[in-house]
Structure to design on (127 residues):
């Protein structure tokens, strides 16, 4: 097992707003993938076989955005979570927990609220 996580889905209530938020804070372009009953915006990957993938999802209620319930997913904040935190409020989100050192070898973490009301972790490892 290369990664503990192979895929994640972040619930949305407004997929276009969520896409704009994540593209703004990570400086990326998300990839649309709409199925008959679900709308998705995929986080870009270089190699689907070796990297963890994920998407924003609007499933019409199957997924539920939450600031307090359910799993907490940590997204890659390398090279420094502070770079991403500096973009969060301008993009419409909020900082729940500022950049915090876990340990010298495990790096830093932070937690934000996205525009959909989800709490999302960020993690970076010193280079």
């Amino acid at each position: 097992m290369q990664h503990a996580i192979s895929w994640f889905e972040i619930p949305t209530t407004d997929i276009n707003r969520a896409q704009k938020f994540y593209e703004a804070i990570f400086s990326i372009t998300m990839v649309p993938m709409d199925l008959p009953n679900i709308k998705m915006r995929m986080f870009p990957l270089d190699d689907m076989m070796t990297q963890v993938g994920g998407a924003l999802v609007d499933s019409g209620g199957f997924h539920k955005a939450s600031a307090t319930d359910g799993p907490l997913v940590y997204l890659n904040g390398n090279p420094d979570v502070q770079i991403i935190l500096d973009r969060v409020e301008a993009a419409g989100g909020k900082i729940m927990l500022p950049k915090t050192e876990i340990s010298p070898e495990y790096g830093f973490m932070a937690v934000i609220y996205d525009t959909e009301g989800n709490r999302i972790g960020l993690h970076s490892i010193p280079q």
About this structure: The chain has two helices and eight strands. The chain has one domain: 7-124.
